[in-house]
Specification:
single chain, 581 residues, alpha/beta, two-stranded antiparallel ribbon, 48% helix, DUF6589
């Protein structure tokens, strides 16, 4: 390498090898997978692994440039440098650039920032980024639409079973009629059906035995007549048993339904069919059991939530034609229910005439349960703040047990449904907002996608004001011609988003005194705890006020403990042992 001509030749050979590696790598590189689904799973670790396997010379050069550091920063630098360099000869290798573009777009970068970083090959152009963002947003609600489709398939599965039940009952009736026709040709003859109804089991009837005494020829169940073993069974034999022909598929018995409906119906039938009869044709009894058992396959339910977004845009240079603009939009999301209940969906729990106010007022049992929860909350504060109780920290109840604690411990599955550029204060636009939600309502639809019949109503959550507007619009459209025009697919319910803030506002109005000298008031306690930001009130500074209220409540509990135990401070010692020695 010290020889000038030889080192130049070596450098050229190394460069040619790196060019060859890049060309071969470009055909299958993860950097070229720029679809929205691929970008979700794109990682720099995959790029480094690919470099080491397919471009060892390029990887070695970049590693050497980083001083052969083994830290995470070196891995990021190598992958970033390789992607930037490879994108110059191969512009389609832009997965990293797309990811950087989304970061800049989410951070609010302006178009000029995109232009500068794009020239450095570090991100895509602003136009390409917006185009990719729109592509990613096209299927933003595909998960919710699948939830809706699963519920529609469930109701279709019920119709599949009903159709099969009718067909099976008809086939069984035909088979019974054929058996009766074969067993007796006149009204004076005792048929096989009559004998079976009397508890006899008759295997065959031959014309040679017409004059035999019935008491001899009729066989009790489990008996065998040796004289009949060699009789040729001809005319009087029952129709051939066809139960072993194999079972038809659900699509043959009830055509015209989607595969998801057949899958749910098949699961219900399998639960209702014994292993011995799994290959036999369906019976009416089996289908009836499946109809009863299909309720356990009801898919997980979901609900919609929405709220208004209000913002003002103030121009830097105001004028007559350039004033402050006020925008009123709506944002919404869907959330899957984590707990499945057994409450009926078709009828209320109690008639309205039987409802009494005492049904919802807290009883003595409810008050005692609430007291137990308060004991747990107070115990946490004592264990956490009082040194004498530190030894009980491992046995303190940090989570109040309840029947659905496992389900509620899971993260909620939510899907953001974007913005509607509508103002819920305007009646016409509020109607458009509710119509938009009907695309997620399970229903029977025609070929054009119009709702013909609702299958299930979707709960629509919002604050009190939004729900009031929704109820008013639904009442105004009550005379529509179809469920969509009547807006019947959604049922409003109130969300307690503002409940805690309203509670803090009531507390502030009752207990807050402007005089800091008034000991025990919220104003005085704010000074003691140095929670000065909370003085703005819960409406203007909710988070600081909420933090102060938690401190204030904890301080009151700890002071009560000091009074009960007769301490001058929290470091006080007990005069007696809590536990026997």
């Amino acid at each position: 390498m010290g020889h000038e001509d030889l080192s130049a030749s070596v450098r050229k050979q190394v460069g040619a090898a790196i060019v060859k590696e890049g060309k071969e790598m470009a055909a299958t590189s993860v950097l070229g997978h720029t679809s929205c689904e691929d970008l979700k799973s794109f990682t720099l670790a995959d790029v480094n692994r690919e470099l080491e396997d397919q471009a060892p010379l390029m990887s070695e050069c970049l590693r050497a440039s980083c001083g052969y550091k083994t830290t995470g920063y070196a891995d990021v630098a190598v992958a970033t440098a390789a992607s930037i360099c490879l994108r110059v000869p191969y512009p389609t290798l832009s997965a990293l650039q797309y990811r950087n573009s989304f970061v800049l777009l989410h951070a609010g970068a302006k178009k000029r920032a995109f232009q500068r970083f794009n020239r450095q090959q570090m991100c895509m152009s602003h136009k390409s980024t917006i185009s990719k963002q729109r592509e990613a947003g096209e299927l933003h609600d595909s998960t919710v639409l699948k939830w809706r489709t699963d519920i529609e398939h469930y109701f279709m599965a019920q119709r599949v079973l009903e159709t099969i039940k009718e067909a099976t009952a008809e086939e069984e009736a035909k088979a019974e009629k054929a058996m009766l026709d074969k067993s007796g040709d006149s009204s004076s003859t005792i048929s096989f059906a009559d004998l079976s109804a009397c508890g006899f089991s008759v295997k065959a009837v031959s014309s040679d035995f017409e004059d035999l005494d019935l008491g001899v020829s009729i066989l009790q169940e489990g008996e065998t007549n040796a004289e009949m073993q060699d009789v040729d069974l001809g005319v009087g034999v029952l129709p051939e048993d066809k139960t072993n022909e194999g079972r038809k598929s659900l699509s043959e018995l009830a055509p015209g339904y989607p595969e998801g409906a057949y899958a749910i119906a098949n699961l219900a039938i399998q639960d209702s069919t014994s292993t011995e009869s799994s290959h036999l044709p369906y019976s009416t009894a089996t289908i009836l059991k499946a109809i009863s058992a299909i309720a356990q396959y009801f898919p997980e339910w979901f609900q919609l939530c929405f709220d208004n977004v209000d913002l003002n845009v103030t121009p830097k240079h105001q004028g007559r034609d350039n004033t402050t603009k006020s925008y009123h939009w709506v944002h919404q999301y869907a959330a899957k229910d984590r707990v499945k209940t057994d409450l009926p969906n078709t009828a209320p729990q109690k008639a309205l005439k039987d409802f009494d106010l005492t049904d919802v007022l807290p009883t003595e049992e409810v008050q005692q349960l609430l007291r137990k929860d308060f004991i747990v909350d107070v115990g946490r504060m004592m264990v956490k703040r009082i040194p004498a109780f530190k030894c009980l920290e491992d046995v303190a109840v940090w989570h109040i047990p309840h029947p659905y604690e496992e389900e509620m411990a899971q993260k909620s599955e939510q899907v953001w449904l974007g913005l509607q550029f509508k103002n819920e204060n305007v009646n016409a636009e509020m109607a458009d907002i509710l119509k938009y939600f009907h695309k997620y309502v399970p229903a029977e639809r025609d070929e054009d996608g119009n709702i013909e019949r609702l299958l299930q109503v979707v709960l629509l959550g919002g604050d009190w004001l939004s729900q009031e507007r929704a109820d008013n619009i639904q009442g105004a459209f009550r005379d529509g011609d179809d469920p969509l025009e009547r807006l019947e697919g959604v049922l409003g319910k109130y969300e307690l988003w503002h409940g805690e803030r309203n509670l803090t506002e009531v507390q502030d109005k009752v207990f807050h005194k402007d005089s800091p000298a008034d000991k025990g008031s919220l104003c005085s306690n704010m000074n003691v705890t140095r929670s000065l930001s909370a003085k703005k009130g819960p409406h203007a500074a909710y988070n600081p006020y909420k933090e102060f209220m938690a401190k204030n409540t904890e301080a009151l509990v700890l002071y009560a403990c000091m009074v009960v135990f007769g301490w001058e401070s929290l470091d006080g010692k007990f005069k007696y042992s809590l536990l026997p020695l």
